[in-house]
Design a protein that fits this description.
The structure is a homodimer of 376-residue chains. Chain A has 376 residues and is an all-alpha fold. Chain A is built from 18 helices and no strands. Among the domains of chain A are: 122 residues, Serine Threonine Protein Phosphatase 5, Tetratricopeptide repeat (Alpha Horseshoe); 90 residues, Tetratricopeptide repeat domain (Serine Threonine Protein Phosphatase 5, Tetratricopeptide repeat). Chains A and B meet through helix 6, helix 8, helix 9, helix 17 and helix 18 of A and helix 6, helix 8, helix 9, helix 17 and helix 18 of B. Chains A, B: Keywords: Cytoplasm, Repeat, TPR repeat.
Amino acid sequence: MEQLIPSSTVGVKINEWYKYIRMFAVPDAEILKAEVEEEIKHMKEDQDLLLYYSLMCFRHQLMLDYLEPKSLNEERPKISDLLEKIESSQTKLKGVLEYYCNFFRGMYEFDKKDYIKAIRSYKIAEKKLALVTDEIERAEFYFKMAEVYYHMKQTHVSMHYAEAALNIYKGQKTYTVRRIQCAFVVAGNFDDLESHEKAIPHLQKALKDSKAINKHKLIGASLYNLGNCYYKMKEYGKAAEYIEQAVSLYENDKSDLLPHTLFTLTQIYFKMKDIEKAFILYKKGIEKAQAINDDVLVAEFNYLKALYIDSIDKRTVFRTFSVLKDNVMYPDLEELALDTANYCKEIGQFENSTTFFAVMVDARIQIQRGECLYEI
Amino acid sequence: MEQLIPSSTVGVKINEWYKYIRMFAVPDAEILKAEVEEEIKHMKEDQDLLLYYSLMCFRHQLMLDYLEPKSLNEERPKISDLLEKIESSQTKLKGVLEYYCNFFRGMYEFDKKDYIKAIRSYKIAEKKLALVTDEIERAEFYFKMAEVYYHMKQTHVSMHYAEAALNIYKGQKTYTVRRIQCAFVVAGNFDDLESHEKAIPHLQKALKDSKAINKHKLIGASLYNLGNCYYKMKEYGKAAEYIEQAVSLYENDKSDLLPHTLFTLTQIYFKMKDIEKAFILYKKGIEKAQAINDDVLVAEFNYLKALYIDSIDKRTVFRTFSVLKDNVMYPDLEELALDTANYCKEIGQFENSTTFFAVMVDARIQIQRGECLYEI
């Protein structure tokens, strides 16, 4: 499968192109333009990026127009005068370009996990946004910020932006998809605040809206998130109900989300002590995971069998944990280690239980440390 | 001891006073002014609040000046015209007042733990700040934001503001105290990112600067924070060294921070297995805690004896945990439960260990939940 280029990388390249445009460095600008166009062909789809690209094409053309050949008698204008002339007549364009420039720089720094720099760029973008755009463009920005801060686990800041976005989308009938995505962010934040019960109504609404517009991906995500929420609340019956609906949908659609969803369902049935049903799901799930060569997921399925069927086969459990560590999947490691510790405690294997509690504590420390990649 | 009024409460009252001023409602404005002045007498010291107060007095006087008695022949101007007249000639004052108005509203909402609303107010204040103030005023705002977001555990956002504040204070010789306070915030954030080793250089610099200006409170805090950092890194020897220096300082100054600092030192010696020294500190510490009727700290000292001297007297341990729960001190509970679990594991009491691990896991959930007090 082709590895797609993230739009933030292309965005940063457009920033570079802009630099040359503002210097009237035509050959360099042309080269960058061609490179950007090549990269766009292999890029993950992103409407914002395409808008930024077309605005920059327009700006590129303005540069060319101002550089039309002069007759020998005419005086050649200074670059700074030209720049002034273009930018003073195109203040709105300039503002929007600066907005996108900082927005994509922020995305790029976010991808590199350089969070302080990312926040700095986003704040500059936000100021420009206030100058130049309409309500829906603002909502778009707020939504993106809600997403970004959610991934950084800056929960309260994320909630602030999600609320700001929702307040705008609420008044707009046509933005159902964004409203659903906002609901996912709000629900995710509530999960991080261990307030799963507050996430439920947002996800129920998301499910209803997704069905209304018949978007399978969003219906599936709503079902999965609802199931996951009930799972975290230890309401396994309800959890199984929703995840089973997600499984059916993904089976029909031949979705690549199926194997992972089967894993969650298998976990739930093991916790419900329905070993028979769980084992059937395990066999089906590991087969699917093997078919797509997903080694991590195969290891996770092996872990479930080692724990619940082979009465804690510690070698296999630790082998799975190694795989998760090698793939820097500490949140998964934390979850499985805690499950293992609790299960051992439940069946009276206390020494083993303390070993796995210690693994969990260590995983949490790694998660915290992992977010700290910058120097100050 | 008199319970001091938080400045955020007085700030919100000044906001109300401002509302009446802008309505030219003289009697109400006068009443609010008197109430504010009364509250300031019993308020925790806050330079920003006092500045806001004096600006508002000036604005109050402007209102009165414009309302001077007119002769019967003169036409009485409309309130809206008066307001327009004052505010258009005092745009800078208006901007600064709006800044403080939103800043204190944010502080007030922050105190109530309504974080989304607090963030919203801070963002409005920030916009006004850009319009009206000089560099040092901006640095003040950034520093406050760094503090606020640190307490909200929005670590990356806090780091962003701390860096912004530091960049301004760096160029200013006279702002040593603020530079030291910034270092504490940066170090605290690194602690939250489990990157204690990155906190050390900031605290070392803070210690050096505090000594240079001979501020005992800041020297003590630097020593304590350094000791705490090494404690978290399990470098107990170094930890003890710094905390001992803090203890000496607090003893000389008869500081009310002494009993708590003795508790930390006692913990360290127990972990170093220097039971004799630890027990001496325990006796000294619990006496001090009893003398000031600090029931929580007394309970925490009881816990140390129950764990390390009375070979895990579970009744006392759980009694201490109850006291912590009753006082909503879940971070303390989390720490002590983890210590207990690890200690039990170490001496082979595995069943007890799993019990305390479970207490720790539960405390973490309570911490997360506790931050979620708003509805969306």
